[in-house]
Each structure stands twice: as structure tokens, then as C-alpha cells.
Write a structure and sequence with these properties.
Layout: H1 9-22, H2 25-40, H3 45-52, H4 63-75, H5 77-100, H6 103-112, H7 122-133, H8 138-157, H9 161-170, H10 175-185, H11 187-190, H12 195-209, H13 214-225, E1 230-233, E2 238-241
Antiparallel strand pairs: 1-2
């Protein structure tokens, strides 16, 4: 008997995660960009299938799954929208899965995200996530909050994983302090703080918990401000200049 129920967001993640693991980073990036370009022009679902199926050449067991999901998308445009959301969340979800480990726990987190509920407000989603986090041990919750903070810093400031890891090491591996500093760095953009005010905020945070780390952290901030951190862009084949804040 054919299953006519829509695939869950967890099942969609499993598809995209499996595909991601079968591709080189550049090819995964190309897959995502191709998907987005077709969403932008409201391309027919058949075009999605035609243009994207070649990416499954190293994951042939996933090809029929993808094709079946595309048939659902032909019947329900909301399902394509959900798939797009899951696709964009896949790298972050991969990291969360590594933290939670237990499949049932991870599935519960995916459900808490309400990615298949177009009517869910931001507040409802955040409340759902917070309710899930409240069920976790403190160390697991902190590890997840670190992932969230790094994702926000990457989106807001363009901080790459290696630069984030440098900052984490400079702060002597203090996860909560690291999260607080990442949040403070974004005040330049989120609240239009002057860079000097951001530095003062970071200095206050660091001196309160890890005073011995301030000298190196101050140098890090200076390099960051003047575009001193460059990471090789494995997708585009060039170097990426990171945050260069306004004075």
C-alpha cells in the first residue's frame, strides 16, 4: 500500500542530511543555490526534479525518496515551502543531532521547531524551543545554545567556524562567556552600538569571568574590526573577509 501521508520534517531532514554527507562541500553548496534559484522564480516542481536529481548520483538509494517527495510537492505547494525550510536548516540540525544523539530526543527537537506549521508565529516557535530546552540537562542545553549563538554570529557578522573557534579558545573554553561575547559582538548591528561601546561591553564580560583572557581577546577584536581575519571559502574558491564594523 502506498503511503499517502506527507513526509515528516524529520524524514525530510534525513533525506537532505544523507545527500549532504554524500557530496563534497562545494557540490552541496551548489545544490542549495540551485534550489534557491528555482524557488526565487517559482519554478515548476518538475524543474526541481530535473535539475537536482543529478546531485544524487552518489546517493542512489535517496533518488526514489527525493522523487517521491517532489510528487508530494506537486500536489501541495506548502510542502515545497517546508522542504525549503528544512533544507536551509540541515547544517544546523546536523550539529544539534550530534549533541542530542538519542534519535527520539532529536526527533522531538525537530517537531518543536514547527517547520511544517506555516501558521506558527515566531513567538510560538521560540516558546516551543524553550520548552524543549527546559527538558534537557544543563550541559546539553548549554551545548545547544552555543550552536544557536554561532549560527547567529555567522549570519550576522559572517564569522566562520575557524574564527569562532579561535575566540572560544581565547576565552579559555568558557562556553557561557563565549555565548555572551558572541551576542555582544552583534550589538553593533542589532542595536546600532558604536564599536567602542561593543568593545567595552565585551571587556566587562571577559574581566568578570576570565580576566587573564582580556589581552588576547582585545587583540582579536582589533583584528576583527579591521578585517584581519580571513578564511578560505571552500565554496567559492577564494578568501572571505570577515566582519568590518562601523566606527
Amino acid at each position: 500500500m502506498t503511503d499517502t501521508s506527507l513526509p515528516s520534517t524529520y524524514s525530510q531532514f534525513t533525506l537532505f542530511s544523507g545527500l549532504c554527507n554524500s557530496l563534497y562541500p562545494h557540490d552541496w553548496h551548489t545544490f542549495v543555490e540551485t534550489w534557491h534559484s528555482m524557488v526565487a522564480v517559482n519554478a515548476p516542481v518538475a524543474e526541481f526534479t530535473y535539475n537536482l536529481i543529478p546531485f544524487f548520483s552518489n546517493a542512489r538509494k535517496l533518488q526514489p525518496v527525493f522523487q517521491r517527495y517532489m510528487k508530494f510537492a506537486q500536489q501541495d505547494s506548502n510542502f515545497l515551502s517546508t522542504m525549503t525550510t528544512v533544507l536551509m536548516s540541515t547544517p544546523l540540525l546536523d550539529r544539534i543531532q550530534g549533541i542530542l544523539q538519542a534519535p527520539r530526543l532529536f526527533q522531538a527537537y525537530v517537531v518543536a521547531l514547527k517547520m511544517d506549521d506555516a501558521s506558527a508565529s515566531h513567538t510560538q516557535v521560540m516558546n516551543s524551543i524553550q520548552a524543549f530546552l527546559a527538558t534537557l540537562p544543563a550541559h546539553t542545553r548549554l551545548a545547544m545554545q552555543r550552536v544557536f549563538a554561532e549560527a547567529e554570529a555567522a549570519d550576522s557578522l559572517g564569522l566562520t567556524p575557524s574564527t569562532q573557534e579561535t575566540l572560544f579558545d581565547l576565552l579559555h573554553g568558557d562556553t557561557q562567556l563565549y555565548i555572551d561575547v558572541l551576542a555582544a559582538l552583534q550589538l553593533n548591528q542589532s542595536r546600532n552600538w558604536a564599536w567602542d561601546a561593543v568593545v567595552t561591553k565585551v571587556k566587562t564580560l571577559v574581566l568578570a569571568k576570565k580576566p587573564q583572557a582580556w589581552a588576547d581577546t582585545e587583540q582579536f577584536l582589533e583584528r576583527l574590526h579591521w578585517g584581519g581575519y580571513q578564511d578560505y571559502d571552500e565554496y567559492g574558491g577564494g578568501y572571505v573577509d570577515e566582519y568590518d564594523g562601523d566606527d
